[in-house]
User: What shape does this take?
Amino acid sequence: MAGSELYVQRRGDGEPLLLIQGMGATSRQWGEPFLDALARDLQPIVYDHRGTGQSGPCADVTTASLAIDALAVLDALQIDRAHVFGFSMGGMVAQELALAHPDRIATLTLAATTAGGPQSRETSGAIVQALTAAVLSGDRERVLRTAYDLLFGAAFVSDRANYDAFAASVRGATPSIFVLREQLAAVVAHDTYGRLRGLALPTLVLHGTEDQILDAVNGDLIASLVPAARLELLDGAGHLLFWEQPERVAQLVGAHVAGR
Assistant: This one.
């Protein structure tokens, strides 16, 4: 990105897999179990969006401008063609990247995301209100507890031992209110509904059946728009499906990359 720097990290020795993170999250929040599972056969590449984690300042945030950042990561690492995994807001960024530069993408995985536009199902007002109230309270622990209850499926949430690992990944890594507002505006404005039929890439769509943030109907819609896309629903998983089921998601991505 012009005028800033992006923090990037990669591991493994396989084919490159660029992971594009969701709203408010950093590269830390992919979770070691998921990254380790991917790194057995692939070379996962993670980075922090502008204004988050260890990257430079935030400005002019749209899903299209964030796609330019993603392309800059590939250019900086001298990677001509990579597999791409986009999650939530990152899935919207991945759509823009794939539409603008299909020649740079070998396979595409879109997880817990949406095409946007009036045809997609928005996050419910009650969920938005709960998250907004938690953030505006200034109580970091309230934010963590609220996010935990909303981002995961019921079975995962019921085991409170899972909370500690999640909270540890988030503490000290939450972006400013300004950055969150910029990212939220980018998410609200995102709309690729009318363009996805022109996407001619091997595409896997992943969605949890208990996703409270973006209903699974959004995954079904994307899969119906992208020619020859395949939809995999993860039973009982919430929004952070790769955190709840890291081995399963890594296996699905690996099989997709291998063309199976």
Remarks:
- Strands lie at 8-10, 15-20, 42-47, 82-87, 105-111, 203-208, 230-234.
- The chain is about 45% helix and 15% strand.
- The chain has a mean pLDDT of 92.
- The radius of gyration is 17 Å.
